[in-house]
Amino acid sequence: MALSKRITTLTSDASGGWDLFLRARAMKAAGVDVTELTIGEHDIRTDPAILDEMHRAALAGHTGYADIPGIPALRDEVAARIEAASGVKTTRDNVLVTPGGQSGLFASHMALCDPGQNALFIDPYYATYPGTIRGAGAIPCPVAARPENGFQPDPADIDVVAAGGAASLMINTPNNPTGVVYSRETLEGIAEVARARDLWLISDEVYDSQVWEGRHLSIRAIEGMAERTLVVGSMSKSHAMTGSRIGWVVGPQEVVGHMINLSTHTTYGVAGYIQDAALFALRRGARAEEEVAAPFRRRREIALGVLAGQNALRLVPPQGAMYLMLDIRATGMSGSGFAEKLLDECHIAVMPGESFGAAAAGHIRVAMTIEDSAFGNALKKLVDFAQAQI
After folding, report:
1. 3-class SS of residue 296
2. CATH number of the 48-284 domain
3. Do domains 5-45+287-389 and 48-284 have the same CATH topology?
4. Section 180-200 average pLDDT
């Protein structure tokens, strides 16, 4: 008996950098002192007050089937948050609660793409994007955002790829892995292409609470885009609730209605006590989100200081998110070769740029996810290592 082509071709043969990550974890398990700067996991845990609310809700009996679209109060709160940020009228009918942002990305492609249709996404990209698109039966089509343009996508490049026919385009700002926040000019250019080519937009905005320069602008707020955009959000990054698996999709009411039907046949909703905790967390307001983001803001400043005055590494301006993208091409090495040697010689684990697509070749991604002093020391070792390769 054969397995489905959908499942056996979900990912390409490339490791996507996970081989290095797994090797670093194996080294740690064997007793080697490895500094991990790999995945986007907070070094703080979920606020105990949020966990107390989750516990209270569970003991109070909210452990049965919850409303599949999400409990009304949470959908209202998400709608209010999105409307306040974007200026676009939003109600609970525009909101579907999902088991994390990843589930929202998959459901969005299922809603917008028929099997065999092209689905565009920006390269560099979060590692799951191509597999998510394949899982929905669509064909992943990368559009390179070039380092010489500061990894801001060029709408003309999107237009060239879209000209071959496409159902959707997925963007991510603030961006993982580059830390770039897309400018208004970039987003308006993307919107123009989307309207001209009749593309749906899927906007991954899970890092919207982590902006260090400028401001986050949702493409949904640009004229004519609310009716063709699905915004994916999550409690994972804004409230350090990665393991709770709760997020949302915001979009046109008709699309959300069909996605509720999809949820009925797939996830069957999110546990009620987790939704209650998310509602409690959102009602704590922006200050609580700023507290979760504060360590990454501090570490960005640490990085700017450590990396100043050296020429082995070029820092892509970190405008948002919890990562640094470092150009290591001055060493003459690939991102993969640099990361492997760094792990072997310095016991520091980072992700090769090639993990995130061809456009990030010759770069490495550094997650700002360890304590401040340890982070600063690791960066200094990384700089010394890079200078020794020149």
Report:
1. helix
2. 3.40.640.10
3. no
4. 98
Please state which of the four CATH numbers 2.30.260.10, 3.40.50.300, 3.60.130.10, 3.90.1150.10 is assigned to the domain occupying 5-45+287-389: 3.90.1150.10
Any idea what DSSP says for residue 137?
A: T
* DSSP string for residues in 162-194: HTT--SEEEEESS-TTT-----HHHHHHHHHHH
Average pLDDT rounded to a whole number, residues 235-264: 98
Record the tokens describing residue 275, joined without a space.
């939704």
Place 385 in a pLDDT band, splitting at 50, 70 and 90. Answer: very high
What integer pLDDT is reported at residue 17 of this predicted model?
A: 63
Question: What is the C-alpha radius of gyration for the chain, rounded to an integer number of angstroms?
Answer: 21
Say if residues 169 and 195 touch (Cβ distance below 8 Å). no
- How far is Cα 329 from Cα 283, in angstroms, rounded to an integer? 45
At 18-59, the pLDDT tens digits run 789 999 999 999 999 999 999 999 999 999 999 999 999 999
Q: Can you name the residues that pair with 365 across neighbouring β-strands? A: 325, 351
Domain range list for the chain: 5-45+287-389, 48-284
Chain-centre distance for alpha carbon 216: 14
- For residue 145, give the amino acid letter: A
* Helix locations, the chain, DSSP H: 5-8, 18-29, 48-59, 72-86, 101-112, 129-135, 155-162, 184-197, 235-238, 253-264, 272-283, 286-307, 335-346, 372-389
Which residues make Cβ contacts (< 8 Å) with residue 249, sequence separation at least 6? Answer: 95, 96, 98, 104, 107, 108, 230, 231, 232, 233, 256, 259
